[in-house]
Design a protein that fits this description.
With 375 residues, the protein is an alpha/beta fold. Among the domains are: 3-43 and 50-79 and 194-254 and 325-371, NAD(P)-binding Rossmann-like Domain (Rossmann fold, 3-Layer(aba) Sandwich), CATH 3.40.50.720; 96-175, no CATH class. Helix content is 33%, strand content 20%. The chain is built from twelve helices and 16 strands. It has helices at residues 12-23, 64-73, 98-105, 110-130, 139-147, 149-164, 202-209, 225-230, 241-244, 298-302, 329-343, 362-371, and strands at 3-8, 28-31, 43-46, 49-52, 59-61, 84-87, 90-93, 194-196, 214-216, 232-237, 254-264, 274-277, 286-289, 306-315, 324-325, 348-350. The chain has a seven-stranded mixed sheet. A five-stranded parallel sheet has the order 9-2-1-10-16. A two-stranded antiparallel sheet has the order 3-4. The two termini are 16 Å apart. Bound molecules: flavin-adenine dinucleotide. Residues 8-14, 31-34, 39-41, 55-59, 220-222, 238-239, 257, 323, 352-354, 360-363, 365 line the site of flavin-adenine dinucleotide.
């Protein structure tokens, strides 16, 4: 056998594992079925702009070890995620904070904002009581109880219905457990201590992790499984777990996103990286303007063009990118059956979003790999 580890998949899980194993003196080969390395954080350079091909990726964490680790590979910039919502042409800051409440109701103090929210929550409670309903029966009732009518109708309803492809009245209440409100003028989406984008883009992070490590792209593990199983002592598998087991219990389902990308002949299309479209009549959920992740101030205008992506949340079918695990009974039970098989493997480690059938942000993926033993 030529290698200690065959790593199937060059996303953040595979690349971080390869980095650590290589540093521990292990011989590693990384293969990926795509034509490029990096998995879903891969960016394509279009007219000098790093375009997040598989959806906008913003790195955020409160884990200093993870933050120091990624910054030791490539420094991160000062990007701070401050999405804006567009509802019928009016703009509202997200997450819900004093700016949003001012835009919504003209209130200027936290006490006024709180009073307005309380008044609308009370109204929702009374409406439910009138109907003899004790517990919210669906997502709509839950959201109305938590935040009131105005914010629900303008900023939650349409967006959520597009995301899930179902009416809020047909979605279970538990999807929204909390709707945090901030009674301060703070548009920073994340509460984490650290956030940013790698300077020069995510490919620099992946290239840094995989430096001096043998890699093969356009190479599918399943195209010659017995060969790939024979090249290394151990396999780190980051592809879909159901495929590894020949779909023997059935196929896992996903939700996915379709991107409509456009190159525009203007330096600044929407003035922000992320604008959500929260009304139901606009079919896309968001428009991403990629340059704002990495270009600030004059740099935006020094680059004469811009690239935008409209995002359409879609049911997954064969041949589409599997993005989000579906958190329902059928899929949870199926995933558990596959995970049980996986625990019996001696020489295969399963990791990452597809192999664990679990939604993972980037930082927890890295944290997980940093904690793993390299044997
Ligand atoms: C739309 C979207 C937006 C996101 N935005 C954010 C964000 O803003 N912030 C954040 O922290 N996280 C975000 N994430 C999560 C982030 O993408 C994941 O945490 C990360 O990609 C997980 O890395 P991974 O290595 O597990 O998976 P992946 O990046 O998917 O890598 C798996 C790799 O395995 C390869 N592979 C699969 N099967 C085979 C095979 N048979 N043979 C060879 N190779 C194979 C695939 O081609 C792929 O390259 C987002 C995810 C999605 C879907």
């Amino acid at each position: 056998m030529s290698y200690d580890y065959l790593i199937v998949g060059s996303g953040l899980f595979g690349a971080t594992f390869a980095y650590r194993a290589h540093r521990a003196g292990k011989r590693c080969l990384v293969i990926d079925k795509r034509a490029h390395l990096g998995g879903n954080v891969y960016c394509e350079n279009v007219e000098g702009i790093n375009v997040h091909k598989y959806g906008a990726h913003i790195f955020h964490t409160s884990n200093k070890e993870v933050w120091d680790f990624v910054n030791s590979i490539v420094p991160f910039n000062r990007y701070t995620n401050c999405p804006v919502a567009n509802y019928q042409g009016r703009l509202y800051n997200l997450p819900f904070n004093m700016n949003t409440f001012y835009q919504m109701w003209g209130v200027t103090t936290p006490a006024e904002a709180q009073a307005k929210i309380d008044e609308q929550r009370q109204e929702a409670l009374e409406n439910m009581q009138k109907e003899g309903v004790a517990e919210p029966r669906n997502l709509e009732e839950q959201a109305l109880l938590l935040i009131g009518r105005d914010i629900y109708e303008r900023l939650i309803k349409g967006y959520t219905e597009k995301q899930w492809g179902r009416k809020c009245t047909d979605l279970p209440a538990f999807i929204i457990k909390r709707l945090p409100v901030r009674l301060v003028y703070d548009n920073n989406y994340f509460n984490d201590s650290y956030q940013g984008i790698p300077v020069g883009g995510y490919n620099r992070l992946i290239d840094g992790l995989l430096e001096s490590i043998e890699t093969l792209t356009d190479t599918d593990f399943f195209s010659d499984r017995s060969h790939w199983e024979s090249v290394a002592q151990k396999i780190v598998f980051t592809g879909p777990i159901d495929e590894f087991y020949g779909f023997r219990f059935g196929k896992l389902n996903y939700r996915t996103v379709r991107f409509e990308q456009e190159l525009l002949d203007t330096p600044n299309y929407q003035g922000n990286a992320v604008i959500n479209y929260t009304e139901a009549s606009i079919p896309y959920t968001r428009i991403i303007e990629h340059k704002h992740f990495e270009m600030f101030g004059q740099a935006v205008y020094d680059c004469p063009k811009t690239v935008i992506s409209r995002e359409y949340s879609t049911e997954w079918t064969e041949g589409m990118e599997p993005y989000y695990p579906v958190n329902d009974d059928r899929n949870n039970q199926l995933a558990e059956q596959y995970r049980t098989l996986a625990t019996q493997e001696k020489n295969v480690v399963f990791g990452g979003r597809l192999a664990e059938y679990k939604y993972y942000d980037m930082a927890p993926v890295i944290e997980r790999v940093l904690q793993m033993p390299i044997e």
